[in-house]
Amino acid sequence: MPEIIELTKSSAASLDCLSYMIDKRRKNILIAETYLKLHRQNLSPERIAQIEQDLEDMRFGLHNMETDYCSIAGEPYTDKRNS
Questions:
Q1: Which of 7, 22, 43, 69 lies in disulfide reach of 47, CB 3.0 to 4.6 Å?
Q2: For the chain, what is the domain count?
Q3: In this structure, is residue 19 part of a structural domain?
Q4: 37, 51 Cβ separation under 8 angstroms
Q5: In whole angstroms, what is the distance from residue 68 CA to residue 83 CA?
């Protein structure tokens, strides 16, 4: 029985950590999108391409984190702080 309790604590800690990481990743994506929108005309084509690639990588990472969250929680990620 202690193993089940430890697994539950471990899963809860993982969910807390993933929730935090998902929230941070979403904010970072928003910051990068806003920066690109505001400064696109002043950036070189190479810099624009790099930021767009970074955004694509960040979105892929976000998708993976949300998938991990779902596999642990058994339900899709929702920001419970705003619910």
A1: 43
A2: 1
A3: yes
A4: no
A5: 21
* 10: nearest Cα among 56, 72, 57: 72
Quick one: which of 49, 21, 23, 22 has its CA closest to 36? 49
Residues 53-66: tens digit of each pLDDT: 999 999 999 999 99
Alpha-carbon span 18 to 25, nearest angstrom: 10
What is the maximum span of the chain, computed from C-alpha positions, in angstroms?
A: 61
pTM: 0.78
Domain membership of residue 64 as a residue range? 2-76
Is the separation of the CB atoms in 35 and 28 below 8 Å? Answer: no
Output the six-digit token pair for 30: 């928003």
> Quick count: other Cβ atoms within 10 Å of Cβ 59?
13
